[in-house]
Amino acid sequence: MKFRIPAEWEEHKSTIICWPHQKEDWPGKFSPIPWVYTEIVKHISEGELIRIIVQKENEIKKVRKHFERAHVDLSNIEFIITETDRGWMRDSSPAFVKENDKTIAVKFKFNGWAKYSNWKKDKKIPKVLSKVLEVDLIEAIHNDKEVVLEGGAIDYNGKNTLITTEECLLDEKQQIRNPGFTKNDYEQVFKKFLGIEKVIWLGKG
After folding, report:
1. Looking at the DSSP assignment, which residues form a beta bridge with residue 70?
2. If you write DSSP's letter for every residue of 85-149 in order, what string do you get?
3. Which position has the higher pLDDT, 73 or 183?
4. What residues does 83 pair with on adjacent strands?
5. Contact, 104 vs 136, CB < 8 A?
């Protein structure tokens, strides 16, 4: 089983976002956020399908009103109904890898950045998306434990090289993701589940 995780700039079928709903993520600044997202959707949907997660079915009507006022082309919009704690899809979504021409979703455990207590709904996102997208889902396990990792903690070039930071993944005092994990542990995980051959470790970030 040899995987490759494509770079974010490579051709892809769709972009997935979550419609903003957690006001605590923008304290005192939430009111313009739906319009910011509307502009994001407007631009992305001009070139590709965009899948939008909403909390309840009745929310779709409200979102559509934003889009209609901004003249968004609705033909490139699909809605996914599922509850989330927050809306940061880059962190809670699975990683999508290729095995030859087959797409596979890799589920890493999401635990609210080892900071927030409300993450149980977000943890279910990989399973929901793999079902909607009709792709196989595998779970990242190392030493018999679920591996905690957010998508925003890593970046990759599509050619088996990944970049991350010691501050994010190896800090032993703050926001500990995987207690006891070493660089070697992470590199084994990256190779097995993402096909990574080279890891560039930065200090801070």
Report:
1. none
2. S---HHHHSPEEEEETTEEEEEE-B--GGGT-S--TTGGGHHHHHHHHHT-EEEE-EETTEEPB-
3. 183
4. none
5. yes
pLDDT in tens, 61-117: 999 999 999 999 999 999 999 999 999 999 999 999 999 999 999 999 999 888 888
Q: Which residue has the tokens 């079915």?
A: 57
| β-strands 14-18, 49-54 pairing | parallel
Nearest to residue 194, comparing CAs of 165, 161, 164, 150? 161
Is the dihedral angle over the CA atoms 144, 177, 139, 205 positive or is it negative?
negative
Say how many residues make up the chain.
205
- Domain ranges across the chain: 1-148
Architecture of domain 1-148: 5-stranded Propeller (3.75)
> To 5 degrees, how large is the angle CA 150–CA 154–CA 159?
135
The CA–CA distances, whole Å, from 6 to 3, 76, 156, 161 equal: 10, 23, 8, 10
Return all residues near 65 (Cβ < 8 A) that are at least 6 apart: none
| Rounded Cα–Cα distance for residues 161 and 169 (Å) | 17
Q: Return the number of other C-beta atoms located less than 10 Å from residue 203's C-beta.
A: 8
Query: Which residues, 6+ apart, have CB-to-CB distance to 179 below 8 Å?
Result: none
